[in-house]
Amino acid sequence: MQTEGRLSSKIVAVIVVVASLTGGASAGCSACGGGSTWMGGSSMGISWAEQTLETGTTTSAGSSSSAGTSAAADGEEVDGSASAISPEALFIDQNGERRLVAAFVGVPGEASYIEGSIHLPLDQVFAEDGGIKSPAEIAAIFGAAGIAETDPLVIYGDSFVNGYDTFAFWVMSYLGHEEVLLLEGTRANREAAGLEFVSAPAVRAAVAYNSTPNLGLLTVESELADEQLVDPRTPAEFSAGHLDGAINVDSTTVIGIDGLASDSALAQAFRGLEKDEPVVVYSSRGGVASIVWYALFDQGFVPSIMIVG
Questions:
Q1: How far is Cα 308 from Cα 116, in angstroms, rounded to an integer?
Q2: pLDDT (tens digit, 9 = 90+) per residue, 220-263?
Q3: Are the beta carbons of 222 and 282 closer than 8 angstroms?
Q4: CATH number of the domain enclosing 131
Q5: Is the overall model pTM greater than 0.85, yes or no?
Q6: Do residue 57 and residue 199 come from a single domain?
Q7: Which of 44, 229, 231, 235 is the most buried (most CB within 10 A)?
């Protein structure tokens, strides 16, 4: 399929830093702007960190979910959605060896930071033209924040479903970060588990971040060929205009009461997609695309993100 046959106008990556994480997709139409913010918690199956704390094994977030399964130390397979950690497991780590590095993403409010956690400068990953900075540039930003590529990183925000958490997960996967998890639950769940919140982040000494980027996670216009295109906006926005050949998977349909929808609901949402063929989720906002991207990743698809303007 030719690129010019699929796009109604030339795609230009334009992102407003804060709005970039929560807006809708664009398709060169009058309904391109806007979007929604989703509230709720996150529950994504077996927690890798719980296995780590109990067995001493580790799992690379870049390989566990995309492959559908990951191998435990004894050779047994575990749930491929092991890319999350429960508040209880993080509390145990914080009160034990403190191996995990917790990092807040999003817009901080009053007492947003779990005690001991740092702030992940997610807004700095965007270039002046609205595109994504190079992996080397992003690595330098995160290294200055005290994150090394070998740090087992736990990402959290106010809620996974607002797109900050999943976008941060995508960015770290794009860098090839070795171990990255999303923190499950809501603020109430986390406080109930014993985690304490403070007003200021912890500060870590700057380190060198040596990335091994997975460039295939980011698709640009010139690279489009015959990939399956997914538009994550609402049906009304999709009907107003979309990229030629795209199917609509409303991002709200992949979210359940506590985070990702059930496997059966996700199977229904993705029924029009072939699992053995590449999928590109496009949006004018990184966050809304990353929600569907993460759900596809969790279900064993091979997805990438394309940011359009």
A1: 36
A2: 877 888 899 999 999 999 999 999 999 999 998 998 766 788 99
A3: no
A4: 3.40.250.10
A5: no
A6: yes
A7: 231
Q: β-strand 84-85 against 180-183: which pairing, if any?
A: parallel
Final residue in a domain of this structure, among 214, 230, 251: 214
133 and 268 in a single domain? The answer is no
81 and 166 together in one domain: yes
Nearest residue to 132 (alpha-carbon basis) of 293, 283, 286: 286
Write the pLDDT tens digit of every residue in 112-171. 999 999 999 998 998 887 778 999 999 999 999 999 999 999 999 887 667 899 999 999
Whether 155 and 275 share a structural domain: no
Instruction: Look up tokens 């947003």; give the residue.
Output: 112
